Amino acid sequence: MKRLILMRHAKSDWSGGPSSDHDRPLNPRGRKAASALGAWMTSKELMPEQVLCSSAMRTKETFVRLDLGDIANFRYDRALYLAEPDTLLNALQAATGDCVLMIGHNPGSGMMAEAIVQETPNHPQFMSYPTGATLVADFDITDWRDACWGKAVARHFIVPRDL
Q1: Which domain holds residue 42?
Q2: How does pLDDT run across 35-72, given as a tens digit for each residue?
Q3: Stated pTM of the model
Q4: Beta strand pairing status for 73-77 and 2-8?
Q5: Contact 151/140 with Cβ under 8 angstroms?
């Protein structure tokens, strides 16, 4: 079995500051939400062996604020910045850990979440996949190369407002 934790970055700061979208940090609400998501993951014993994270400032900051301890196998990847679902799936298919945390952006992350599960979670915000949305899905496979659309079983879905 392989497990994917698919997270959209926490709430970012639109108040000015950096001149590029790629360099936008989290706002105070986003920082608090990322920490709460990390505490939730820890309480559920959802500890990734590998992290695939967009290179954007807000995704990097989300990962750091999850405070999951030492994860030796992680990378910040520019290709995941505003990536389409197929790009995200391709990155996942190259993963090596049994439990992979992928932190990205909408609309790609939300579209991927909807496309990989056999049945969508019964949650009013699943289809909008708001900031901080996190899907935990299991694949009945032994190698990530075999991950494909519509094959995962959703185990958890949460948004920061649920915490």
Answers
A1: 2-123+135-140+147-162
A2: 999 999 999 999 999 999 999 999 999 999 999 998 98
A3: 0.97
A4: unpaired
A5: yes
> Is 22 inside a domain boundary?
yes
Q: Is the dihedral of CA 54, 58, 63, 64 positive or negative?
A: positive
Assign residue 16 the CATH number of its domain: 3.40.50.1240
Q: Work out the pLDDT band at 30, boundaries 50, 70, 90.
A: very high
CA pair distance 12, 90, nearest whole angstrom = 26
Residue 129 in domain: no
Number of domains present in the structure of the chain: 1
Q: What was the pLDDT predicted at 15?
A: 79
Instruction: Name residue 76's amino acid.
Output: Y
Structure tokens at 44: 């559920």
| Per-residue confidence (pLDDT) for residue 36, from 0 to 100 | 98
Q: Is 47 within a domain? A: yes
Q: How many residues does the chain have?
A: 163
Q: Could you report the per-residue pLDDT of 6-21, keeping only the tens digit for each?
A: 999 999 998 766 678 9
How many angstroms separate the Cα of 3 from the Cα of each of 18, 31, 69, 102? 35, 25, 19, 11
